[in-house]
Amino acid sequence: MTRVVVVGDLMTDAVARARYALARASDTPAIVTMHGGGSGANVASWLAVEGAEVAFIGRRGADITGRNRDMELMGYGVDARLVMDPERPTGTCVVLVTHKGERTMLSDPGANAALSPEDLPRDLFAPGTHLHLSGYTLINEGSRDAGLAALDMARRANMSISVDCASSAPLERTGAEPFLEWTSDARLLFANTDQAKVLTGRDDAEAAAKVLTAWFPQVVIKMAGEGALWYSNGRPDSVHVAAEPVDKIVDGTGAGDAFSAGFLPAWLAGKPPAEALSSGCRLAAKAIMHLGARPPF
Length: 297
Description:
alpha/beta, UDP-N-acetylmuramoyl-L-alanine:D-glutamate ligase, nine-stranded mixed sheet
């Protein structure tokens, strides 16, 4: 199996699940739980539990939270290459889940915002290895140089590259044109329907995927309950796979990250797109049936 190097964000997710409709300017009963998070770290964790050889490059604070996140990654089997920031805390994301299951995220990147090119271990960038870059690294101005350096190092080492679009709102603030320019060396782009619309202006997932193949040889659009589709600029038709049925959606946080981790090993092994999509949907279904964005221990 191809070794995967993930460059991205490491966070602690504080998930607040409201029991009733939010009472503005007052109190709403909720269940609050703490979990390891960060899109890049989530992908690395799911890859590791699926049996992939994976290294994660990121930055954490010199705090207990950072130490716990570091130990979690190692517990999953991830080769965690985390630089300790002496000044900034480990990143935190408050995930507010309404009584109807709608999610809103409030993110403080903390140490993630200081990831620099010097933090990238040169030994991990080698031929035969795959780079997966979290879009948050490029969207955040403080870590952008590190993301661009990782892409350049991977290109020079003849590594295959995949990029995830991160989140629609910060992607829109950054701008579609710069993001597409920065990531044009990637062989594979992951986007959900909202992110694909930001990049292309198209509401239809298949239409957006076709537009995006002007920049990327292959595109995967994650469509939540409608499954996912793959499109290549070398084929006339897209490949679509339905989402796996689940008994109950417990927490959708990190489902897209789990999908990417399910898709990548099959894709890197040269499996048919439908098989890779099915693998991604399988892991996404597993993710939404428990609390938190990481695999259950």
